[in-house]
Write a structure and sequence with these properties.
This protein is an alpha/beta fold and 348 residues long. The protein has a single domain, classed as Rossmann fold. The protein is 31% helix and 12% strand. It is built from 9 helices and 11 strands. The strands form 3 sheets. A 6-stranded mixed β-sheet has the order 2-1-3-4-5-11, with helices on both faces. Strand 9 (297-301) and strand 10 (304-305) form a beta hairpin. It is globular and about 55 Å long. The two termini are 37 Å apart. Bound molecules: 2-acetamido-2-deoxy-beta-D-glucopyranose (3 copies). Residues 1, 4-5, 149, 165-166, 169 line the site of one 2-acetamido-2-deoxy-beta-D-glucopyranose.
Length: 348
């Protein structure tokens, strides 16, 4: 999992930064949204990191369907957290590394691929502050992780041991946030990427990689168990788990049922299934193909769904029934928020 403990330091740092703003973070009664994860959620943090183009999407045609400029999002348009913020009546949640951003409604730490965010422990000592406590305890925390962990070899571990390590890492982050007052968590299952164009192209005969999917299924089972366990163990802990893996697999199988023309081939890229990660021509391969209408392709590039898919996923995550999002959905996490006025007035 690409969530490093340094991000938690950054989270704390942000909370303190926030308190130094003239209006503080408490001017609104809305819950803030903090986002952690991989490229499915990255709004452009990697754009500000010195990494290779493999981990960047800050060039055309990324962003072409919605933003007038590439933003660093690995999509033709918006991502799941962008829609969740919209449904929660929040502005777009800014990338943590974006200069001069406004953190009053939350911040997005997600980072595509393996890029680790800058380390910052500043502000740790101020954590006892009631205001930062209130900001953090009133926020909703969004996680997408797992996808990247199962692309690389996991030896010398057994599958079960490796999955356990990934889940343990995520639990550590969740528990640390809980200790700082966080109570409400939105979590995605890991998508079954074995048949995604970018994985198939590495396989003999461009077949699906069943090993990755097997590992991912184990991950999703362990994730479900761990979240149930945390709910029992941590008082007040609430979560919304969205089964994005099934949602994506359904769309790959029957694209037209969901408004797509193409469920297997990427809109942008080259080679069989558009599976060569050349979209934009910046990753060492200059030539690439771009479909005419990105909305029709479930996959924008060989590793990332398009904006329409992200919108559909966000809708299910927001107010889907318990077949797709459970035990709560994001809407009930936001609506179930206690009033921010739980502290005595003189402490505010
Ligand atoms: C777990 O987290 C540690 C520390 O951040 C990291 O070095 C390790 O690679 C992670 N392991 C997995 C399986 O994600
Ligand atoms: C970015 O990374 C490369 C390779 O590690 C290095 O040569 C270069 O100096 C770095 N650039 C900056 C601005 O840090
Ligand atoms: C692209 O496809 C979508 C879905 O089929 C359609 O609604 C839209 O009008 C198309 N856009 C263009 C520019 O053709």
């Amino acid at each position: 999992m690409a969530i490093a403990s340094s991000k938690l330091g950054a989270l704390v740092f942000v909370a303190v930064l926030c308190l130094s703003l003239p209006t503080g973070c408490l001017s609104s009664q809305q819950a803030a949204l903090f986002v952690f994860g991989d490229s499915l959620f990255d709004p452009g943090n990697n754009h500000h990191i010195n990494t290779t183009a493999d981990f960047q999407a800050n060039f055309w045609p990324y962003g072409q369907s919605y933003f007038s400029l590439p933003t660093g999002r690995f999509s033709d348009g918006r991502l799941i957290p962008d829609f969740i913020a919209e449904y929660a009546s929040l502005p777009l949640i800014p990338a943590y590394l974006e200069p001069n951003n406004d953190f009053t409604h939350g911040v997005n730490f997600a980072s595509g691929g393996a890029g680790a965010l800058i380390e910052s422990h500043a502000g740790l000592k101020n954590l006892g502050d009631t205001k930062s406590k209130q900001l953090l305890s009133n926020a909703v925390y969004l996680f997408s992780c797992g996808g990247n962990d199962y692309q690389s070899p996991f030896y010398p571990y057994t599958r079960e041991q490796y999955v356990d390590l990934v889940i343990r890492n995520m639990t550590k982050v969740i528990k640390a946030i809980y200790e700082k007052g966080g109570r409400e968590f939105g979590v995605l299952t890991a998508p079954l990427i074995g048949c995604w164009p970018g994985i198939r192209i590495r396989q003999p005969g461009n077949t699906c990689n069943t090993e990755i999917d097997e590992l991912t299924r184990l991950h999703n089972q362990a994730l479900a168990k761990r979240l149930e366990h945390l709910e029992k163990k941590l008082e007040g802990f609430m979560y919304a788990k969205f089964d994005i893996s099934t949602a994506i697999s359904n769309r790959m199988k029957s694209p037209s049922k969901y408004g797509f023309k193409e469920g297997e081939r990427a809109c942008c890229g080259s080679g069989p299934f558009g599976g060569i990660y050349s979209c934009g021509g910046m990753r060492g391969i200059k030539e690439f193909e771009l479909c005419e209408n990105a909305t029709e392709y479930l996959f924008f590039d060989c590793f990332h769904p398009n904006e329409l898919a992200s919108r559909q996923f966000a809708e299910m995550f927001w107010d889907g029934d318990s077949m797709v999002t459970q035990p709560y959905n994001m809407k009930s996490l936001f609506e179930g928020k206690p009033s921010t006025n739980f502290l005595p007035n003189d402490e505010l």
